[in-house]
Each structure stands twice: as C-alpha cells, then as structure tokens.
Amino acid sequence: MKLSDSYVIAGMHCSIVECLGSGSFGDVGLAKTKDAHNKFVALKIVKRGQMATDEFKIHMKLSKRDRQGFVPHLYGMVSKPKQIVFAMEYLGNGDLNERTKFGRLTATQVKSYFKQLILGVKFIHKHGFVHGDLKPANLLLSSSNKLKIADFGLACVYRIGKIEQEVPARRGTPVYLAPESRNADEDDTVRGPPVDIWATGIILVNLMTKCRHPWTSALENNRAYQNWRNNIADEANLWNGFPDDVMDLLRRILCHEFDDRATIDEIISHPYLKQC
Fold first, then answer.
1. Which residues hold ATP (predicted)?
2. pLDDT at 36 > cutoff 70
3. Which residues are annotated as a binding site for ATP?
C-alpha cells in the first residue's frame, strides 16, 4: 500500500491518505473520496484468493441485512490481478484492544461494550454465520462509542436454513480459542456458535482487567485454566474485585463442555445484562 494509491469502488474515487495497519491479513488504509461528499472510508487490501472472496461475500450479506450497525457498512470491492480491495465504513475511534489498554473502564462502560458485542454476535449467528476470530482488536468503535464487529476473514457458514453444520476447529487467535478448538487436530471440526460464545467470555475478562488474559490457552496442562475449572483460587488474583453477577456469567460462558455453555439468549437474559 502506498499513499496516494487510488481505486474506484462502488462509484467512489478513493485515494489513500494514511496507512492504518499492516499484517499477515493484508493492509488497511484510510482513503478520502473525491465525490461531492468528500468523505473518508477504510480500504482493506488482501491477497486475492478464495478466503478473500468468502470474506467479502459474508461481510456484504451481513452489511445488507444490518439495520442497527452491528458490523461496519461495506460499500463494495474491486478485484485486481493479485489483490482484492474492500471499501468500508471508517470508524475513527480505534478498537476495543486500544480502548481497554488506555485506562480501566467503568462498570457501566464494560457492561455497555459487552452487551453491544453479544447483540452483534446474535445478529451474525441469526444469519447463519460464525465469526471465528472474536477479540478486542476486531471490535471497532465509532465516535459515539458504538461497537461494531469487523474482520470476517475467518468467518464461515455454520447453518443453512435450519440445518447446522460443523466448522473448522483450528481457526482464530489461540488465547481466545475454546477448549474443544484448542485441543482439536488440524482437520477436526466443531460446533460454531459455542466457539464464538467462549471468545466473548475472554473478551469480558479483558474488559474488566485492562486486557489481561485469564490463561494463555484452554489446555489440560495449563495451570491457570485448570485452577479455573476446579474453582481453585487464582495465584495472580485476576478475579479479585469481580462482582458476583459477572463471575456467575463467566462461569456459564467459560464452561469447558460446549454443550453446557451458555447460549446467546441465555447471556442476554442473565441478570448482569438485564440490568443494562
């Protein structure tokens, strides 16, 4: 990505004015349009291939059905010989990872962000998809602190009509992976929704603790995780100060057996969020 690179996407003439990020996924830049509105959009430039095509299709389907702003609006894409460029809504308030590290959040802020996350996940699941890589860095914030779920590079279909199908197990960021995914072999599959739900629990811990993680991985040989499973006092005092209703909800979400894990509707109806 170079400054001043230009693309025509969905009828908009977009010129990159700032590089926002770069990684294995590709590059993200801030672009200014040359139309009458003269607005800013975010451009995501990824390597051309099936994963990029699938990401665009899923994001676009969700964007078209989104009436409450659960995901960044996707304007369109342009395909180049080696790249695909997405044009989407620019959210200028950073991501939740930056926000949590900036300073400790109030109880009201934690609850607000978490409820927005849960409602966004419910929207994604309702339309037959799982995100597959929920984490604070993929949760973008608008200037009014509206949380939007972004980056559908690992998203996939888990339900067609009323028929549910399993999804690849070993996808996502390790510290946010559910135990059934973390312990799976490379080609194994798992139920999709419980994996996303598990990740929301880790994110809730992040929100409560300035982005600390309760454990590095949900494996049998991880001492911190086994302490959690066996209800043994945490040596790092991570849970000190957590309200009882938060701890009760976390026990329901961060449940080792995915069949016993809370569903999205059970989380929404939990006393912690019903007071929000």
1. 44
2. no
3. 44
